[in-house]
Automatic annotation (TrEMBL):
The lineage of its organism: Eukaryota, Sar, Stramenopiles, Ochrophyta, Bacillariophyta. Residues 647-659 have a biased composition (Basic and acidic residues). This is SUMO-activating enzyme subunit. Heterodimer. Gene3D superfamilies: NAD(P)-binding Rossmann-like Domain, Ubiquitin-activating enzyme E1, SCCH domain, Ubiquitin-like 2 activating enzyme e1b. Chain: B, domain 3.
Length: 680
């Protein structure tokens, strides 16, 4: 078994919190052939828990440093002799055993790939096939989906893990063992907030924080209309603050700063007072639980004249202090060269965070929302941060290693059995790995079970027969074939929702779209703006079966189309998969820049992905989801690429309770399942 460990090829995807623990465990267990993929570089904020990194590594690729450090942790071939002498100073492990070929061991090689696992040109099915198993240490749904599909296509076992604070899960996915894949179960969405709530009727601190992030964009983004608070000043009845906003954006530095201060004051006054009063006069808040109150002018004046902004990150700033903080941020921004000013909010940017804390507290006070937030707590909400717990990462990585041992043991058994020509193991057919017999779905929970356990193991689930990824299930899709264009279908559904990377689309055996290696995209470009019903080969009509192929992940599925003029979101079927649609939004630019809720009705438990895949590069972004009807306009917190940062593979809504599986599956006493016990 140890020889098997030393000689097997392992792929580790991700070298962050879980990845560092994993690589350390792999190295100390004696694994010699490990390849690591990670796209990130080391940030100072990683050092508290990503144990392979030190301050001198900041800025370097995670995978490179992790490989270097882990290599030196692989125990030497000659173990220290136990002479009873505790003084082991002269027995420091050295890895100069790479020339030792006498025992047919491969040299120690921890190989780094600094790149995105979704890069189809580098990481494809043949690449994955060279490994005995793959271990995931990722933090987002998109990358997990990708690895899931690659491993299924290559039929290589995948050990998946995820943690959220104190909660963690580890599971094993393997095509030919007949167990569920990552996409057999739906993943939680981030919370969704209707835009009208953010713009007009906030009731929670998070609403005012989202609003402040948009305000930041409204004031600093080069494209002012990128903010959801933007309204065309030339349009009919724009909000009262728009004129002051344009004035502030255009204001030049003046000698004594008075003009600039006036511009700042005007914006704050319009946002916190004039606009609120206007809405009150229009009766907008009649039904509101709490009627908003305009910000007291004296607070604004006092705050504007104070010079020293608040500095505490843990105290809650008074309203005057918040005004001072905001004015200071705006002055700072005015004197910062454009290229140094962040256009979009970033929780790790000091000025941006002070701005958002101050602005959201002013807005919260106007709407009577409690509690107000310190900078520290606002940062948690703004960055959608559930603190990473190093211990949970360590536990889950350890559990992954145990699962790896189980898998290698099965592989070894199979190899030995085959070489001896036998077919049976204790009467069992060992023709396949049958990992369902040796691996488990393990939950790491915060509140122990009735039996006093913090770790519970249950058998791996069977595949979901409706899973289009591992079960080739047909996908039902409901939409308006006379309104949707091929472009929208590709971006919103096929790539956005279904995760195809390089789809080829076929109607009755004829191509209507092709991309990827060797594809002639030019040939089909003219189809993109066409309405689905107008496409060649008879078009996509009610009842059409559309075939989608993706060589990059060896995926081939059929989609059956149901035409529907309009979709009422409430009608959305709950069953999986459930890609359903309605009319596209009317505004053209919304189609380009923003995904549409309602346009693709999303089950509440599905991973919400930004349709604008090219643009979702910030894990802290609020992705706006805009429908033609403002009442249906939504935002999705963190809907971008790294949306599931800190999102576990099976996390529940409040991120705290044990998962459904942990709660509902009986433990050892009830069903003979192996249960790992740890001490309280
Ligand atoms: N598509 C991808 N390809 C390669 N590596 C990825 C991909 N997506 C995420 N990763 C890596 O997975 C790791 C996840 O680790 P972790 O959850 O600790 O995140 P982090 O970014 O290091 O920490 P934090 O989000 O708390 O700042 C990161 O190092 C990240 O770079
Ligand atoms: Zn599946």
């Amino acid at each position: 078994m140890f020889h098997k460990i030393q000689t097997s090829n392992i792929l580790c995807v991700g070298a962050g919190g879980i990845g560092c623990e994993l690589l350390k465990d792999l190295a100390l267990s004696g694994f010699r052939r490990v390849q690591v993929i990670d796209l990130d570089t080391i940030d100072i904020s990683n050092l508290n828990r990503q144990l392979l990194f030190r301050s001198q590594h900041v800025g370097m690729p995670k995978c490179t440093v992790a490989c270097e450090v882990a290599t030196n942790m692989v125990p030497p071939l000659t173990l220290p002799s136990d002479d009873g002498n505790d003084d082991d100073d002269d027995e420091k492990p050295t890895n100069n055993d790479n020339n030792n070929t006498s025992n047919n061991l491969p040299s120690i090689l921890y190989q780094a790939h600094h790149g995105n696992v979704c890069d189809t040109s580098k990481f494809n099915v043949p690449f994955v096939k060279q490994f005995d198993l793959v271990v995931n240490a990722l933090d987002n749904v998109e990358a997990r989906r990708r690895v899931n599909r690659l491993c299924l296509a290559a039929d290589v076992p995948l050990i998946e893990a995820g943690t959220t604070g104190y909660l963690g899960q580890v599971t094993v996915i393997h095509k030919s063992s007949g167990v569920a894949c990552y996409e057999c179960t739906t993943q939680e969405t981030q919370k969704v907030y209707p835009i009208c709530t953010i713009r007009s009727t906030p009731s929670m601190p998070v609403h005012t924080i989202v609003w402040s992030k948009e305000l930041y964009k409204l004031l600093f983004h080069s494209k002012v209309d990128d903010s959801m608070l933007f309204e065309d000043p030339e349009g009919e009845e724009p909000s009262t603050y728009m004129a002051a906003v344009s004035n502030l954006r255009n204001s030049e530095e003046d000698k004594d700063g008075l003009l600039f201060s006036k511009a700042v004051r005007d914006v704050l006054h319009d946002l916190c007072s004039t606009e609120i009063q206007k809405q009150l006069d229009m009766g907008r808040y009649k039904a509101a639980k709490k009627t908003p109150t305009c910000l007291d002018v004296s607070i604004l004046e006092k705050g504007m004249t104070a010079i020293t902004p608040p500095s505490s990150t843990t105290d809650i700033w008074s309203l005057e202090e918040s005004v001072t903080a905001l004015a200071t941020c705006l002055r700072e921004a005015q004197t910062t060269p454009n290229e140094n000013l962040l256009e979009e909010f970033d929780k790790d940017d000091d000025m941006a965070m002070r701005f958002v804390t101050a602005a959201s507290n002013l807005r919260s006070s106007v709407f009577g929302i409690e509690p107000l937030q310190s900078l520290y707590s606002a940062k948690g909400i703004a960055g959608n941060i559930i603190p990473a717990i190093a211990t949970t990462n360590a536990i889950c990585a350890g559990l992954q290693i145990l699962q790896a041992f189980s898998i290698l043991k099965r592989q070894l058994m199979l190899e030995q059995d085959r070489s001896s020509g036998g077919e049976k193991e204790n009467g069992d057919d060992v023709a396949g790995l049958q990992l369902d017999k040796s691996c488990f779905y393990v939950n790491c929970i915060r509140n122990r079970t009735r039996n006093g356990l913090y770790l519970t193991a249950v058998p791996l689930e069977k595949p979901n027969p409706n899973c289009f990824v591992c079960k080739n299930a047909v996908i039902p899709l409901t939409l308006n074939v006379n309104e949707w264009t091929l472009q929208e279908l590709l971006h919103r559904v096929i790539k956005g929702r279904l995760g195809f990377e390089e789809p080829t689309l076929m109607l009755q055996g004829d191509f209507i779209w092709e991309e990827g290696d060797g594809a002639d995209e030019e040939e089909f470009k003219m189809n993109l703006p066409k309405k689905l019903s107008q496409l060649p080969c008879g078009g996509i009509q009610h009842g059409t079966v559309l075939e989608i192929d993706d060589n990059s992940q060896s995926l081939n599925v059929c989609v059956t189309i149901t035409h529907k003029d309009e979709w009422d979101g409430d009608e959305a079927p709950e069953d999986f998969p459930f890609v359903v649609g309605a009319l596209p939004p009317k505004k053209k630019d919304d189609v380009e820049n923003k995904p549409a809720a309602g346009a693709v009705a999303v089950s509440s438990t599905e991973p919400t992905k930004s349709v604008n895949a090219d643009n979702n590069d910030d894990d802290d972004d609020v992705v706006l989801i805009i429908d033609e009807d403002e009442a249906k306009i939504d935002t999705v917190e963190n809907g971008g690429k790294k949306m599931a940062a800190k999102r576990s593979i099976d996390e529940n809504a409040d991120g705290e309770k044990p998962t459904k599986k942990a709660k509902t599956k009986p433990s050892k006493e009830d069903n003979n399942v192996e249960v790992i016990e740890i001490e309280d």
